[in-house]
Design brief:
It is a single chain. By secondary structure, this protein is of the alpha+beta class. It folds into two domains: 106 residues, Rieske [2Fe-2S] iron-sulphur domain (Rieske Iron-sulfur Protein), CATH 2.102.10; 269 residues, Naphthalene 1,2-dioxygenase Alpha Subunit, Chain A, domain 1 (Alpha-Beta Complex). Bound molecules: fe (ii) ion. Fe (ii) ion binds next to helix 6.
Length: 437
């Protein structure tokens, strides 16, 4: 039985959320239908499918989908990765190249636009009333597919707002990542990513990226070790590049408060703005020269002083423009989520920039990172309590009632729970819409 809107609304209060929203199977099913099935979901970057026939497999709302470059039109299609015959998943490869896709069960074959190419032994369908050209026998396209500066999104639903309107102000984050390239473009590094299973509901991961109260505690072991190491360095010694990345994780409450947090429409938001944990990163002279030549001094300064940290593109991804990385959420079950961590190369920038991006990813976002396992342990602890019912409500009172209104956004001190409260406003909006469908 589907939960009524009245019951769902009782689970989300202005500054606390009932723990069952992280553990209830029915709520997870409704989220996949009403949030993940009715918004734009990040699929991948166009550089993952450079050549006609290149494809990449992923999921939307737990359903397998395929991003594939059309061999005829060169456009990027996003198809359900299901055979139109009996529904078998067509390819389980993460990525590859194919002019024709072939289902391994009965050998039905498909073109890169999803249309049926051939069904074996076609004579058996003669005079049966089955029209093999009917769209139901294709690998169906998702409801909507679009991209913004090479970042491809898709929606299961057809009746969604345009991608540009969905992203809204968050487009500036994507713009900034691209504009940090002297050529104004980025591309993925390699065709795969760091990918690992998190033992928690998808929302716990997303919320943690706007939780500036945890780094100085959860990540203290690593940041303390780095700070001890730095204090022992002989005077005048250049610290190792790793220290530049890890050191800010031990920042004070005041440091994170000053970074600020901003809430945008549709559940989006970001930490930082002018100041973030990587705004102090060393700027390499050869990179500055290339940027100055491409944009001029004033525009270059504008681009490089834009520093958002963990911009949340609700519900499926988080973006770090200043370090050129994206983390992508792929919910699996109510209490497990695959997180993909992708890194990007700034076209036309020196190799040093890419090395720093990769170093950041290894140190902070990879399964073997020096910081990520701290978060993983925290996710495990809070998911366990939500699942076994040992906590009723999750508190969101940090700086509650002290948000500042700015145009179409709200801002607050960095350790505020504003970003999470804003995600729940969008959560309610989506969940309410669903009932009228
Ligand atoms: Fe963390």
């Amino acid at each position: 039985m589907t939960l009524s809107i009245e019951k769902i609304e009782k689970l989300v209060e202005p500054a606390r959320v009932h723990s069952s929203v992280y553990a209830d199977e029915e709520i997870f099913r409704l989220e996949m239908e009403r949030i993940w099935g009715r918004s734009w979901i990040y699929i991948g970057h166009e550089s993952q499918v450079r050549k006609p026939g290149d494809y990449y497999s992923t999921t939307v709302a737990t359903l397998p989908v395929l991003m594939i470059r059309d061999t005829k039109t060169d456009q990027i299609n996003v198809l359900h990765n299901r055979c139109g015959h009996r529904g078998a998943i067509v390819t389980q490869k993460q990525c590859g190249t194919a002019e024709i896709l072939r289902c391994p069960y009965h050998g039905w074959t498909y073109r890169t636009d999803g249309s049926l190419h051939a069904a074996p032994h076609p004579g058996a369908y003669k005079d049966t009333g089955m029209n093999i050209k009917d769209a139901q026998y294709s690998m169906r396209s998702l409801g909507r597919v679009d991209q913004y500066r090479g970042f491809v999104f898709a929606s299961l639903a057809e009746d969604v707002v345009d991608l540009s309107d969905f992203l809204g102000e968050l487009k500036h984050t994507i713009d900034n990542m691209c504009d940090r390239s002297p050529e104004g473009e980025v591309e993925v590094t390699g065709l795969n990513c760091h990918r690992f299973l998190h033992p928690c509901n998808w929302k716990f991961f997303l919320e943690n990226l706007h939780d500036a109260m945890h780094p100085m505690c959860a990540h203290a072991a690593t940041s303390d070790a780095v700070q001890n190491y730095l204090s022992d360095l002989p005077e005048g010694t250049k610290p190792p590049a790793e220290a530049e990345i890890i050191d800010p994780f031990g920042g004070s409450y005041d440091f994170f408060d000053k970074m600020g947090v901003t809430a945008l429409e549709n559940g989006h938001g970001y930490m930082g703005g002018k100041k973030s944990i990587f705004s102090h990163f060393e700027m390499y002279p050869e990179y500055l020269d290339a940027m100055r030549e491409a944009y001029g001094e004033e525009r270059m300064q504008d681009i490089l002083s834009f520093n958002r940290h963990n911009a949340c593109c609700y519900p499926s991804s988080t973006i770090r423009d200043g370090i050129q990385s994206i983390r992508v959420l792929r919910p699996q079950t109510v209490n497990s989520t695959i997180i993909e961590s992708w890194t990007f190369r700034l076209k036309g920038a020196p190799e040093k920039l890419l090395q720093r991006t990769l170093r950041y990813s290894r140190l902070i976002n990879s399964p073997g990172s020096m910081v990520g396992p701290d978060d993983l342990d925290c996710y495990y602890r809070i998911q366990e309590s939500a699942s076994n019912g040992s906590i009723d409500w999750i508190d969101l009172h940090r700086y509650f009632g002290q948000d500042q209104s700015e145009a179409s956004s709200l801002t607050a001190m960095g350790t505020s729970d504003l970003g999470i409260r804003n995600q729940y406003q969008a959560w309610l909006d989506y969940m309410r819409q669903g009932e009228s469908q």
